[in-house]
Amino acid sequence: QLQLVESGGGLVQPGGSLRLSCAVSGFTVDNYAITWFRQAPGKEREGVACIRTNDGGTYYTDSVKGRFTISRDNAKNTVYLQMISLKPEDTAVYYCAADLLQKLYYSGYYFPFEAPKYDYWGQGTQVTVSP
What we know:
Number of helices: 0
Shape: globular
Mean pLDDT: 95
Distance between the termini: 40 Å
Strand content: over 45%
Radius of gyration: 14 Å
Largest sheet: 7 strands, mixed
Order of helices and strands: EEEEEEEEEEEEE
Helix content: under 10%
Number of strands: 13
C-alpha cells in the first residue's frame, strides 16, 4: 500500500522560504508521478509541481515557475518542494499525491495536474504566507 506523509508547512512572511517534504513508502516500481497540489479556501485543488520517478522530469504550473523547485532523494524515498519568494496567494493546504505515469499519459503527452487521476494522497500540510 502506497503511503505519503507531508511535513514542513508553517507560517512565513511574504518573500520568505519553506521546504516541504513528502515521505513515500509502499512502492518500488520506478514509473510514478509524484505531484504537489494545493488548495486554498473556496478554491479548487491546483497542481503545483510534479516529478517523474523514472527520469526525474519535472513540471510546474506557471504561477510558481522560478520560485518553486521539486526534487527527490531516492535514498530517503522523499520528494521535496523548495519554495522561495513566497506570496500571500501561495497560502493553502499543500498535498502530495502519487500514481502511475501511464494514467497521466495520453495523446502523446503527460498531463500531471489532473487531480482525479491520482489515487494516493497524503494528509496535507498548511502553508500560510502572511506579514
